[in-house]
Amino acid sequence: MLGADLGRRLREGDLAAAPDTLNLLESTAAPDRAQAAALQHELSPAALGGEAPGHIVGVTGPPGSGKSTLLSALVRRWRARGSTAAVLAVDPSSRRSGGALLGDRARIDFDPADRGVLIRSTAAGTRLGGLAPATRAAAQALAAAFDVVVIETVGVGQAETEVAEVADTVVVVVQPASGDVLQFLKSGIMEIPDLLVVTKADLGPLALRTRRDLGAALRALGSHSPVLAVSALPPGEGIDELIEALRARRAELDLSPRRLRSRRAQALSEYEREHGARGVRALGGRRGAQELLRGEDPGLEVPALVAALERAAPGECSPPGEGSPPGECSPPGEGSPLRERSPRGARSPQQSRPIAARAEEAGR
Amino acid sequence: MSHPERTPAGASESTADSPRLSQPDRPWIMRTYAGHSTARASNELFRRNLAKGQTGLSIAFDLPTQTGYDSDEELARGEVGKVGVPISHRGDMAALLDGIPLGEMNTSMTINATAAWLLALYVVVAEERGVEPARLQGTTQNDIIKEFLARGTYAFPPGPSMRLIADTIAYTVHSVPRWNPINICSYHLQEAGATPVQEIAYSVSNAIAVLDAARERVGQELMGEVFGRISFFVNAGVRFIEEHAKLRAMAILWAQIGRERYGVQDPRHLRFRYGVQVNSLGLTESQPENNVQRIVLEALAVTLGRDARARAIQLPTWNEALGLPRPWDQQWSLRIQQVLAYETDILEYPDIFDGSTVMNGLVDELLTGAREEMAAVAEHGGTLEAVPYMKAAMVDSQRERLRRIEDGEQVVVGQNRFTESERSPLTADAEGGILVVDPAVEAEQIDALRRWRSQRDQAAVDRALAELARVAREEDPQANLMAPTIAAARAGATTGEWAATLREVFGSYRAPTGVGDAAAPAHDEELERLRAQVAHLQEQLGRRPKILVGKPGLDGHSNGAEQIAVRARDAGMDVVYEGIRLTPAQIAASALQEGVHVIGLSILSGSHLELIPAVIAALRDAGVDAPVVVGGIVPEQDIEPLRRAGVAAVYTNKDFEINRIMGEILDLVAERAAQPAAAQPAPA
């Protein structure tokens, strides 16, 4: 699979390139990592001439709150309005024995012949309630071609932090009479969402009361985030209002600062995952790394930002084209900071080469 | 000494000086679960069966009819006339019942989501022949909760489904008083892996949900009548002593609930009445002749003790694990019943377990367990709310059962022990000893259906369906759907139109799969080996191996698919489990979007030769070249055609070692990954 090719196709709005793109972004194999970097290069704000236009919406809520039913209704309505939609469902099922059962997909109904809808399920990583490792990159890539990219996660409370980092808009979904969300909001455990949705409005007074309580809690916190009540069961209610609220928010939203912040955060976390705490210390700690990232071109894609960090780590790894032959990086020896604390365990020298070097290779 | 909690209805009638009954009991109603191809062909079969001494009818409907689709809809492809008869309108029903005396016949219909509709067609055909509804006798299965739990032929969401059931109960109790409007099924729970305790607890909880819904319609004064019309459809496995105890326990529990929860006093209303089809789950494809003795012993479980004897029996056939039974196979099963009833002395005695401390002890044990489990269901907020809990519990039980068989802890003669065998003459014929439905049937049925639609008064049909939709939207609990349903049947509407009208109002629904909550297994060396294989493969692929498991077509028997999904997870794979009722296009779209490395398809309805090649074609169209493996009831002679169609491996009832299957699936993925990928573009 040629990453650059896939990137170009997505840039031109070819939705059929999406599945292969996701396969590539999820892969940890060294050649695939290089192709993935090339793919992301084609979708950088510099290459796109701006941020990817798709609206990245995080939809999160406790289990049983009706997220899938709601998404099913939203996807249908989006399609009816001519918008394309991708759903990245991050399944919370803990990886028992390493494997995972990804069941959510079955609950989102859509026309299989319709290429304007894509649903991809991934298992959440080892972190509680977090995203899957490739979710951020996937959302950013798909936003180049789809009108809406939904990241569906399960949780209430701290778990949303990750999705808030990558999404343009965070929608928290609650069912009537769920006191948890109210408590989390009041106590400040939960960040204030951009939109709150109370599902199962067909339950009547209970849903209305929940909506009222949540609205009051938000106002007390000085927030003007809308609270909507929806029923996804036929005949359905509130779905159009929700779509309208999302559209209005997207229209008034300046994507750039959020997306830029998200790319920088992601670059740092990927760098850290690759090179450990010592790698970060080599950059003068997190603060130093953030400083470095702020100095980089805002149009760069994540792998390019990681490469910039790697270049800046003094003496640890020669950047391609400077000193060592292009694409070659001397395998870090014993005691090298880059060797240490790699969470994925021992790697071959091939695998621990910097991402930038691999992207360079892939371009050839 | 009788059981201390014994139901008053079960009093024995032996005379003081003789251990025998003064007069032998009458035999139970003998049925054969039958129907296939077309209404006409099924009618011939019914008449032949009645001529052989069968005393009631048991109609098997095909899957499109059961799930509310017409024969010409996409989901119906390959399923028309397979596991039962297609009935699309009153013309089909009239042909099916041609020459059958409806005023005298006792007819059981295995129909659930669309029960109200099929009952309406039955009533309308009787009306055309001048038979009053009040004279009709029979049963509509009409049990939706077990469809959500185990059988999968539901059509509408839980709420509206329960409303349809309550509506049929309210209608029959007034207008068709000799009809059993619902048969609460524990049968399918056992088939899905339920233990005896789960079977009792979940089916009785199910009955409570139905009775609660009915009470809102008919009022307390009729609750005795309603309670008395609720019958059960149970299962019996080969551990026939415990299975008999299970039925005695159900009788006790049932009477208790009638008295305490619904204030029923009349002992006739409190009687536990049940029909039975004995276990198919334990029937094997290996040495299939052994199934005959299994069936005989299971029949004893439901006939031995007079206090808990079945009212109606239908027995499976020796070759069910191989494919669809032929009339001769069904005759053999009917003869088993006849030998039991007419040759043995089984009907001559009062209850032979009366005073047995062993039997009473078994009954007590089951009652205690069932009451605990019913409390757990109640804690989940009631039966409907507890569906995901019950489903997950049964998936776990089934997994435990399969593990015991795999490990040899549970002996299955001819399958995991005593496997040496001579060649069986029973399967030596060209068809392998099963019924093959002529594939031309589907096209014929579709032609006939289109003729029907073109010849009826379309305006009348439209009016009737509009009225049906209007009543469906009503929120008044007294707005009964039976009246507009009967009117639509009279007008000539079709099964698909009736169901589509209600789907439009009620929405469609997907039941929980139960696999997500299945517990992780204990330490297991074979699984460890599989996990190592997965880890190695992950390095080769760059991603964790990902499998799509799904069921094409309308067949809702999902046990096999669920067990494969759970085991694949336990082996460390990422599993996309899509559940039941998928079109080839849906499977292809999922495989593509999810980026899976292998696809596992399960079919038990006999439609594999139509559906599997269609799925493979859809996959290749979508550009997915992942290997496809198939599991289910696949006759030996169909394996080669499937392989030619592109299937990499076929697994049937013989392949009970799931870990071996997993290993082979992983090998397939590894092989495919090692091939120079033709689908990948060469670097420019």
What would you say this structure looks like, in words?
The complex is a heterodimer of chains A (364) and B (684). By secondary structure, chain A is an alpha/beta fold. Chain A has 14 helices and eight strands. Chain A has a seven-stranded parallel sheet, with helices on both faces. In chain A, strand 6 (169-174), helix 8 and strand 7 form a beta-alpha-beta unit. Mean pLDDT of chain A is 82; it is low at 318-353 and 355-364. Chain B has helices at 39-51, 63-67, 90-96, 115-128, 145-151, 158-175, 187-191, 196-218, 223-229, 240-262, 267-270, 290-301, 327-343, 357-379, 387-406, 440-455, 458-473, 482-491, 495-506, 525-541, 559-570, 584-594, 608-621, 636-644, 658-674; strands at residues 29-31, 33-34, 57-60, 106-110, 137-140, 179-180, 183-185, 231-234, 274-277, 312-314, 546-552, 574-582, 598-603, 628-632, 649-651. Chain B has a five-stranded parallel sheet with strand order 1-10-9-8-7. Chain B has a five-stranded parallel sheet with strand order 2-3-4-5-6, covered by helices on one side. Chain B has a five-stranded parallel sheet with strand order 12-11-13-14-15, sandwiched between helices. Residues 7-12 and 678-684 of chain B have low confidence and may be disordered. Chain B folds into two domains: 27-427, Methylmalonyl-CoA mutase (TIM Barrel), CATH 3.20.20; 525-674, Rossmann fold (3-Layer(aba) Sandwich), CATH 3.40.50.280. The longest helix of chain B has 23 residues, at 196-218. In chain B, helix 4 links the parallel strand 4 and strand 5. Chain B starts with 28 loop residues before the first strand and ends in a 10-residue tail after the last helix. Chain B has 25 helices and 15 strands. Chain A binds chain B through residues 1-2, 5, 18-20, 22-23, 26-29, 32, 93, 96-103, 105-107, 109, 112-113, 118-123, 233-234, and chain B through 157, 504-508, 510, 513, 515-516, 518, 520-521, 527, 531, 534-535, 539, 541-544, 565-566, 568-579, 583, 585-586, 588-590, 592-595, 680-681, 683-684.
